[in-house]
Each structure stands twice: as structure tokens, then as C-alpha cells.
Amino acid sequence: MEFITAGVKTLYRKYLTASIGSALALSVYSFVDTIAVGRSEGELGAAAMAVISPLYSFLTFFGILCGIGGSVLFSAARGEGKEEKARAYYTAALLAVGVTIGALWLALGLFHDPIFRFLGADGDILPKTMEYARWLIRFLPFAVLPTFLGAFLRNDGAPALALGAVIAGGCLNILGDWLLVFPLGMGMEGAALASVAGFVLQTLLMCGHFFRRGYGLRPVRPRRLGRALGQLLAAGVGSGLLDLGAVFTAVLMNNQIMRYGGPQALAVYGVIAAVSPLFQAVFGGVGQAVQPLASANCGAGRWDRVRAFWRLGLGTSLALGAAFTCLGELFPRAVTRLFISAAPETLALAPGVFRPYFLLFPALGVTVLSTYFLQATLQGRRAALLAVLRSFLTAGPLVLLLPLALGLPGVWLALPVSECLTAAAALRMAGGRPGGSLGGKFLDFPKKS
Length: 449
What we know:
Layout: H1 2-5, H2 8-79, H3 83-110, H4 112-118, H5 125-138, H6 140-155, H7 159-181, H8 187-207, H9 225-260, H10 263-300, H11 303-330, H12 332-339, H13 344-357, H14 361-376, H15 380-406, H16 408-430
Helix pairs in contact: 2-3, 2-5, 2-6, 2-7, 2-8, 2-9, 2-10, 3-6, 3-9, 5-8, 6-7, 6-8, 7-8, 9-10, 9-14, 9-15, 10-11, 10-13, 10-14, 11-13, 11-14, 12-13, 13-16, 14-15, 14-16, 15-16
């Protein structure tokens, strides 16, 4: 099995390219939609997309919960040489994602208005939000399945197919946004249809993996289904909670921004709400590159290789985080103009929003990588604890409390402060402190065999 025998750096580069490419292409949906909507619908459209963004994170949460959770166990069982056990975990994950999609579909179909009001839609923003959301709800399974299938394809030795499918879907989305939003003048609905078309194409292409020779993703009769479901949910909950936590903090941010800044501030934050998930997805791509490699070597007891993959991922995440921070510090107005046709007073708000907020990205990279790594090495409880610490124990309280003392600037500073606190805990949990032995002590690992 190449995960255990091939060169560490060669494997890492191969999976990093595919994983980051997939993450970038998948994130293009909300990113490009926000540009198209902002340019065609103005500040009201950008504010509506800020409400839609948490829904994307919510759907991604369930795709990751079932996909990453199941694929971690799938890869670890393969590292042990237990193919039937690996397929049993895949079967359990397939059942879990099917039930989850059905429940989400029903809930959003019946209760969409109160859900979107809870996410921050109010007044004129709610009807504009529903123009987009109704199409996303109708085709909801296709918004969840690419994340789920991509996780398993990477663990079944097909990262290139996962990448190609996501790129094809992203290209169709971009073409559809241009055609439907501008020449055909369909506005929010056109952007939604473009995204739906991209999701459908991506899912169909990924399903082509099941017609390839030698693939391992074959359902089998599940044994101890309840136990298997509990294990995969425990394994996947950490990285899934990163996206669920993003929903929680986005809801608080949207409401606090409307309270302290109003619709113009929310329009600027709508730009960040499109850019930030893109950057988090890139960090997730680093984590998803490390995950199958670390999981297989964990199953095989190759702790030296596990440590090496951690060090490579950490260096990549820190470098990317620094680059993302520089973008926001240097070009806040230019990025805002790219997304929305904003009034001068709205553009004037951009530096005061971007510069404090964008300080969070190096720390975010450490947290996201650490969460995936803890899951990959079967430390699911620590991964979940880290995700809960990030969003619910630090970010949430700070978003509520800092504005009481600082006003609107406190809203923008809350998440950078939260991310720094969480990153310090993440380094302790996943690999010790940077420098020296970088990767340091693995708290639960046996010594190198």
C-alpha cells in the first residue's frame, strides 16, 4: 500500500495538490456566487449571501461528519490489512449520510423562513435570500454528497478523480453565473441554478469511481451497525464541528453587525463571509491531504511517518495563513470592489473591517490542520474538544462581550482573539510547540515500533 511504503514528501505533495485543488474548486460556488450577486444585486444581494453562507457551512458539516469520520476508519482498517472491516465502515457511513440528507431536506423544506430569520435575514433581506435558497433546498442532496464522496475517493486512492470532478463542477458554476446572472438577468436565482448545476455534475463525475476496476468502496452487510455509526461520528465530529461552529459564529456575527453597524457593515462582512470559507477550505485541504496518509500509517504503527506528515502540514498551513493575512491587510478596498458595487461610504468601512479580521488566518490554519490530524490518528475526542473550544467556548462569548466595551470594532476583533487562543491549545493537543522537534510529543501514541 503506497500510503505506508512510498516517500513521505512525494506522497504529501501528491495529495496536497489534489486536496487543495478540490477545496478551492468546491469553495468557488459561494465565492463566485457572491461576486455575481454583489455585482448584479448590490449591497442587498451581498447581505443575503452573508445569510446563505452559514447554510453552506451547515451542509458541509454533515458531509464532513459522515465522510471524514467514515474515511478515517476506512483508511485505518486498510492500514491494518482488514479490507472487509474497511468496507463495513464505508457502508455505515453511506447509511448515515442518506438518513442525514433526508432529515435536512425535510427540515429546510418545512421551516425555511424561521431558519433564515435565525441566520440573520430580516426585512428586505429575507425575500432576496429565498430567491437563492429555494433552489439549493430543492437539490440539497447534491450539495452534501460531493464532500462525502470526495473524502472516500481520496482514501481509496483516487484523489485526481475527486479533484477533476470538483474542477468541472466549479467551471460549470462560473460559466452559469456569468450566463444566468448577467446576459439572462436572473439575479439571485441564476446564481443558485449555476451552483446547483455544478453540484450535480460534480456528484455524477465522482460516481464514476464505482465503475473503475479495483476500487474498494463496496457496500457489505453491516456488522454491529450501531457501534460502527458511533465510531464514525466520533471520528468525524471534530472537523465537522469546525463547519458547524462556523454556522454558530456566523449567526452571532450577522446579528451583532446589524446591531452595532447596520446593513452597510453587513454588506462588507458579506465579502468576508465569501472569502473566509474559501481560506478555511484551503486549510481543510491541507488537513485532508494529511488525513489519509496519517490514518493509514497510524493503523500500521508507523509513528515516524505520522510525525513527518504532521510537520509538513503545519509548515504549509502557517505559510498559507501568512499569505491570506497579507491580502486583507494590504488590499481591503480592492477585494470589496471585486465583490460588490458599493457606495463610497461602504467602501470606506472596508479597511476597518478587513484589517483586524484578517489577523486570524495563521492561527486558523493551525487549528484546522490539528483537528484533521487528531481525527486521522484516532483521537476523536480531542478533535471534538478543539472544535468546541474554538467556536462555542471562545468565539461565541467574545463576539457577544467585546462589542459591549469596544462597539463595532469589538465584533471584528473577537474572532482573531478566539483563533489565537484556540491555536495555542491545538498545538499542545496535536503536536507540541513549533520549533525544535516540531511535532514533539504525541500524547496518546505508543513509541515508535
